[in-house]
Amino acid sequence: MSETIERIKCLIIGSGPAGYTAAIYAARADLKPVIYTGMQMGGQLTTTTEVDNFPGYPNGIDGNALMNDLKNQAERFETEVRFGVVTKVDFSKEIGGIHKITIDESKTVEAETVIISTGATARYLGLESEERLKGGGVSACATCDGFFYKGQDVIVIGAGDSAAEEATYLANICNKVTILVRKDYMRASKAMVHRVEKTENIEVMYNTELEEVLGDKVVEGVRVFNNQTNEKQEIDVTGVFLAIGHKPNSDIFKGMLDMDEVGYILTKGKSSKTNLPGIFAAGDIQDKDYRQAVTAAGSGCMAALDSERYLGSLK
Ligand code: NDP
After folding, report:
1. Is 293 part of a structural domain of the chain?
2. Which of 11, 51, 180, 220 lies 20 to 30 Å from 169, alpha-carbon distance?
């Protein structure tokens, strides 16, 4: 028995703010979008508690509630939201070509345009105590969660531009910020390191690594060790901010789409266009600099408009 392969005008991969916003716009342009949500329906925001910086919510909103609102808004315009993970893609290189997408290693669909909004995943150290206290004081986003540590002591782990930027951001809010750097220098740009050095309430501990986050339900401190002397020390903090990089979720597109050395998808100029016709990228998968829900949403809108214009140009 032969099975008819489903043809979709606009297929969206990933269900963060970029994906749902793309869906709202694509649906209103009558592209009948279908979203495949990925494993973590709603994306990174579902792992934070309160979101205070998304415009339109004067009293803040829970991350899960925000993502539910975006999903409901997309569905109101008849977006089809499907739970499933894209496991393989076979993109056409031709203008007007049809792209083949495999879901959960079994079902294949065809799409005229594809919007990739698979996001990036913050890296964690992999400690049991860190995992247990995520949401209880362990965070990978100072801009999202820093406010909750007003006047308190926190640590930041990492030595790149993100660590430097998060530490200086937190220093404006918190009483004291300690940065744990595993080497004897910070790899962040000179200007950022200078800013860290100039900030009075930041202390940098070199050759120092996190051994354990202390606390049962919420962070009460950390135990760190000097990797040269093996000396251990406990520091009283209420917040632990990881800034050891993000991993863009782009593995399945490797070899097909142009990416930078880390795996962020490259888009052309100010658009969401990738190097292949009909394939667009939005949100953190193509943005290592801003990484905010609202910027992701904005780029999702751009991707839907680019899809609509692309399809219009084929007529
Ligand atoms: P990076 O990959 O640049 O830095 C990650 C840092 O985490 C490194 O210093 C690394 O240490 C440290 N690290 C990694 N694993 C561990 C571990 N297990 N234990 C302790 N430390 C660890 O990531 P960023 O997120 O900082 O930056 C990503 C990109 O975004 C960069 O290109 C950066 O320039 C850019 N960016 C730009 C900004 C701006 O211009 N305003 C702001 C933020 C980011 P080590 O040095 O020892 O390897």
Report:
1. yes
2. 220
* Closest to 246 (Cα-Cα) out of 129, 118, 64, 54: 118
Nearest residue to 163 via CA among 44, 244, 284? 244
Q: Are strands 138-139 and 239-242 parallel, antiparallel or unpaired?
A: parallel
- Rounded CA-CA distance 117/35 in Å is 10
Catalytic residue among 10, 30, 52, 144: 144
Task: Identify whether 133 is part of a domain.
Answer: yes
Strands (E), 162-231: 176-180, 202-205, 208-214, 221-226
Q: Span 166-187, mean pLDDT?
A: 97
Output the pLDDT for position 289. 87
Closest CA to 45 of 149, 117, 153: 117
Q: Looking at the structure, tell me whether residues 153 and 223 fall in a common domain.
A: yes
Given pLDDT bands bounded at 50, 70 and 90, which one contains residue 3? low
Ligand 1 pocket residues where CB is under 6 Å: 125, 157-163, 165, 182-183, 187, 209, 243-245, 288-289
Alpha carbon nearest to ligand 1 atom 7, residue: 244
Confidence tier at 50 by pLDDT (50, 70, 90): confident
174 annotated active-site: no
**pTM higher than 0.85:** no
Distance 243 CA to ligand 1 centre (A): 7
- Residue that terminates a domain, selected from 190, 223, 242: 242
- State both tokens at 216: 């049962």
Pocket test for ligand 1, best of 165, 186, 187 (most atoms within 8 A of CB): 187
Lowest mean pLDDT among 1-15, 250-264, 288-302: 1-15
Per the residue annotation, which of 141, 161, 174, 284 is the catalytic one?
Answer: 141
Q: Which residues contact 255 (CB under 8 A, 6 or more apart)?
A: none
